[in-house]
Amino acid sequence: MSAPHERPTLAPSLYAYAKGLRDSGPDGPSPRRGHPLPDTARPPGRRGLRHHEARAAVTDILLPLLDAPDPARAAAEAERALAATGVVREQTVFHAAAAVEPPEEPAARARTRSFARHLVRTGTTVPGVSAGLGLLSRLAEPEDIPYLRVLGLLDGLVHPVDGALAHLDREAAALVWLIHRTQGEELRGLVDVLATEDRAAVPDRLLKIPTEARGVGPEVARRVAEAVGLAGLLRTDPAPGLLARAVDLLARMTSSRDYHAEVLRYGEAVDLYESVAAHAHRLPRDVDHRARLLTLALDLHSGASHLLPWPPGRREALHRTLLDTAAWPGPAPADPDGRRRADWIRRTARQLRAAPPDPPRFRIEVAVADPGDPDVVETRVLIDGRPLVPEAFGPGPGESPERLLDSGALRATPEPREVRLAEAYCTEGCCGALYVTVRREGEHVVWSDWRRPGGPVARPDLPAYRFDAVAYDAEIARAEHDHGWTWPARRTARLITAGLRDHPDLLTRWGLRQGWISTDFREPDTTVVTFTGPPLGGPGRNGAAGEPRQFLWRLPDDGTPPEERSAAALRRLAEEDPRGYPEASG
User: Fold this and answer.
1) Rounded distance, CA 58 to CA 97, Å?
2) Cα angle vertex 296, ends 292, 301, to 5°?
3) Residues 18, 152: Cα–Cα separation, whole Å
4) Residue 416: which residues within 8 A CB-CB, separation 6 or more?
5) For 443, what's the count of Cα atoms within 13 Å in the CB-facing half-sphere?
6) Please, are residues 574 and 560 in contact by the beta-carbon 8 Å criterion?
7) What are φ and ψ of residue 556, in 5° steps?
8) For 247-290, what is each residue's pLDDT tens digit?
């Protein structure tokens, strides 16, 4: 008897299988993480097949069959051949098929579309259906949407279905993604009313989803906005509750804590910004709403939102509106979190108002995120007014000011120096980084020889940028001496770092090596000094034994000026082995 993958027509199509599951409970909740695939859906895989080899195998099968006179027969032949290759990863098959250029001639293009539809609607294996979805990503029409939505209920097809729907129906694509990727009762409740097309219940469910970062990440925020048609909802009903939720979701999309700048992937971002700015004055005048509005103003100024397709002058106008509405005029709230956020609003608003109205050729700014939604502190480079990192890189933020400014890394000398400007949200080893070589050439400073090791391949090549050396040096000096973005605990950390740079023996005398020195991510009012070395050898002994470990010395802000606080810390390092500090942990 033939193996299951050799006789796909004996099994029900994956579409029929998914439709049967849907029809068995049409009014029930959407399946969490999708319905499982049938056992016959995945043919045996082949070990040792490299990614480029797998894609080539898929392409070689599909190309001769695109214009076949009998699309149904061609689809069956393609599915048998795909199963035999051992390529089972749906994303590999989908992307290989999506890269195939369909014929231009109308009749041949129609046959290719029919071939893809037969794979999608009658295919019995994941590779076969994924190939059809990849072809349909260029050829799908509105009549394909119901079939794709049904297939999107199956675990294992979410990525191909999402990709095929993305350019055809963003709401449907977002719903498919949310069915498989959301957790938490509030989000599941929203997904369920969307899946049953109960549009009247959407606003109420939308107001119940969590607002904190851990509940809704940047991509979830974008998908929710797409699935509910948020820009249209807000145009129809700009009620304060819905408006506040729109501000929350849009602010989450601007976060750098994801693999993409999600606000740039949201097709209605400009419309949503317009609606938010037009009605921002209707929001409660508390610290939470003001902080979210200022987050949007900051991103319009120097973040990814700057790069959206703005009509002339609109970005600047919305930036001014949001900045004015977010201003904090009165005393700080009594609670520590509210006081911290109010201080951030004042500092950041001053920064934004002090920025030159006419952008210079080269500008450096430090961006600090809302303490209520912790994020990295990043150095943003603007060239001709446009933020460099989100345009040239994307998967992560710019490097910290300690790494780029305090170290003098951006100072130009005749000797070329390679500098890392940004690292992926995960790590460089996972998803890459952005490097540039900086050198002085006579009256100019040149940034050239760009590298994106392990980074996105779909970004355009970057040119060599030439800056006037005098203006460049002045901007670097201004940025290095600008402490307006800091707060006391961060200023303490920078002063301790500077002291150890001048006197490294304060740690080396104890056999220790300096680590990172900054503020706690979740507790920004706490300075953290890290160092590595072996544990203490015993009471009263400076000797050490055992494997090296990392130590953390935590210094909560006690109201002492940073200059005094850092000087006291450096004096203590000179007098006592820090491994013995009661407040240091190893």
Assistant:
1) 7
2) 145
3) 9
4) 437, 438, 439, 449
5) 1
6) no
7) -65, 145
8) 999 999 999 888 788 999 999 999 999 999 999 999 998 999 99
Write the secondary structure of 466-519 as one string of H (helix), E (strand) and C (coil): EEEHHHHHHHHHHHHHCCCCCCHHHHHHHHHHHHHHHCCHHHHCCCCEEEEEEE
Asked if residue 519 lies in contact with residue 493, where contact means CB atoms within 8 angstroms, the answer is yes
Q: Is 247 exposed, middle or buried (0-12, 13-18, 19+ CB in 10 A)?
A: buried
Given a cut of 50, whether residue 368 has pLDDT beyond it is yes
Give residue-wise pLDDT tens across range 495-551: 999 999 999 999 999 999 999 999 998 899 999 999 999 988 644 444 455 678 899
In three-state secondary structure terms, 542 is coil
The C-alpha atoms of residue 46 and residue 55 are separated, in whole angstroms, by 13
At residue 536, the 3 state secondary structure works out as: strand
Distance CA 523, CA 519 (A): 7
pLDDT tens string 104-128: 999 999 999 999 999 999 999 999 9
Name, in order, each residue with C-beta under 8 angstroms of 385's C-beta and a sequence gap of 6 or more: 359, 363
Q: Using an 8 Å Cβ cutoff, are 383 and 360 in contact?
A: no
* Encoded tokens for 352: 């934004």
Residue type, 183: Q
- 210 in Cβ contact with 188 (< 8 Å): no
Locate 341 and state its tokens. 């956020």
Looking at the DSSP bridge assignments, the partners of residue 544 are 536
Please return the burial class of 496, using the count of CB atoms within 10 Å of its CB with bins 0-12, 13-18 and 19+.
Answer: buried
Quickly count: other Cβ atoms within 10 Å of residue 337's Cβ.
12
What whole-number distance in Å separates Cα of residue 253 and Cα of residue 263? 5
